[in-house]
Amino acid sequence: MEEGRRSAEAHATKRQEMQALSGRWQQLREKVNRDEARLHSLRELRDSYEGFAAGVRAVMQAKQGKSGVLKGVIGPAGDLISTEKAYERAIEAARARGVSIPRLGT
Asked: What is the SS3 string spanning 49-75?
């Protein structure tokens, strides 16, 4: 009798653990879906040069068109700069003041 009770308790405990894990798995799946949707939106913004000045956007979109009209355009200077985490704010401040200007190669 005691063994049956212990077995039932163990089964109930495992069922509760499984329900908790299932709930956690659902939460993580929803987070992945939200993160993937956000990533997609951010990539669209990046690819359309949203937030750049109209002239910079026009140059960069013409470059993406690969029509050959704009040879030597490398990209916005802000995309070409990498720095340590401690200096990211300074770079972002500089970018707001013109670092988005297209840089040309030679």
From this structure: CCCCCHHHHHHHHHHHCCCCCCCCEEE
- When pLDDT is averaged across residues 11-15 and rounded to a whole number, the result is 94
- Nearest Cα residue to 64 out of 98, 106, 102: 102
* Cβ atoms of residues 93 and 83 within 8 Å: no
Look at the block and give the residue holding tokens 């200007």. 101
pLDDT tens, 17-62?
Answer: 999 999 999 999 999 999 999 999 999 988 888 888 888 888 888 8
* 2: three-class secondary structure by DSSP: helix
Structure tokens at 43: 């990539």
SS3 readout for 86-100: HHHHHHHHHHHHHHC
Rg (CA), the chain: 26
